[in-house]
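[scheduler] slot 2 assigned
[scheduler] job type: sequence-to-structure, two independent chains
[scheduler] chain ordering preserved from manifest
[runner] begin chain α
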Amino acid sequence: MTFDLAVLTAYVPALLHGFVDTIWLCVLSGALACALGIALTVGQRRGSRLLVVLIDGYVALTLALPLLVLLYVTFYVLPDFGLLLPASVVGVLTLAIYYAPYVAQVIQAAIDAVPAGTIEAGVAIGMSPLAIGRRIVAPQALPLLLPTLTGLMIGLFKDSALLSVISVHELMFTAKGVVSDTYAPLEVYFAVALVYWATTATLNHATRQWERRLALAHGVALER
């Protein structure tokens, strides 16, 4: 068995296109997951009893299902009920729905870690709830939130490879096509693995730098 990355030369543009599509899918689904996670957090903390019960049910159901099962349900079952969406839209929505409860749990843990005394001080001087959230809670919670949230986004990025099973044109789907053309799975999947590793390592390093700067700016002590 030989190992020759030169066989991929003609397919670099296709793989690069697949990688760019993967990034866009992850950015969209990550942004939706964060927005939905914030909404879930607000609903659980400020919502009515019925809303809290509904959110808890959604969270429990989502956390109990493997992502692949949820992906199959949204792609193959929903059309039977008249809801037919493009594969890329299904992929983005499924990733967002799956990761939103995890984001909500991370946000709640970060908020709970903010010293109660600082919030009480804000109330004592007459700050509004919005001002307390923006000027007291958020600056202290964000540095605590970033490490775990980054881990979730890295997980989302890696899980985006599962979208290839519903024919979403992302990096792994493109790689499968290249393997069919070149009969060089070792070289193709080695290159793909290298891309995933480099991307996640870059994201993790950039987030750590941002986390340290936020912690220094707001005087928050980090565990690492």
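[runner] end chain α
[runner] begin chain β
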Amino acid sequence: METQKFDITSSQSNITWVGKKVTGAHDGTIDLKRGEIVVSDNKLIKGFFIVDTTSIKILDITDPETNAQFAGHLASDDFFSSQQFPEAVLEIISVSDNHVEGNLTIKGITNRIAFDTIVRVENGVLRADARIIIDRTKYDMKFRSGNFFTNLGDTLIYNDFELQVTIIASLRQEILSLV
């Protein structure tokens, strides 16, 4: 049984997000800062990822002023509280086949999440792809949620948002000391 550690290559990895509301959806990206994936016999066994919440970008709003206003709102306490909590962390705690369970911490609040992933290792490079659905209200993001407010009509924002994650990681080159 060979265990290998991979360091995430942030510049080649990407996370896209989609948030939906009654009248449509918004989408964008968020940057992965760093992380580690551990595999045994080419199967995922554990890992962690750190996401930069200050890097949220909106792709579907092209007007610069409206885009900046929306980005500021996502960074505010209504959503990610990015100034106080500049990082979100996912720690993988168990894996069975391609089903992953982990602890996700956003705004200092940790909840268990589960998702499926596909992991491939070839020539010292790991690629992992996953679609993760997150209930924002579990992380104190209640803005225009039907769970907390009534009579929202067409201003309601759905509680779940989706992340499409692609991780590229390189095999860690352990340095051996000769004594």
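[runner] end chain β
[qc] chain β: The mean pLDDT is 92.
[scheduler] slot 2 released
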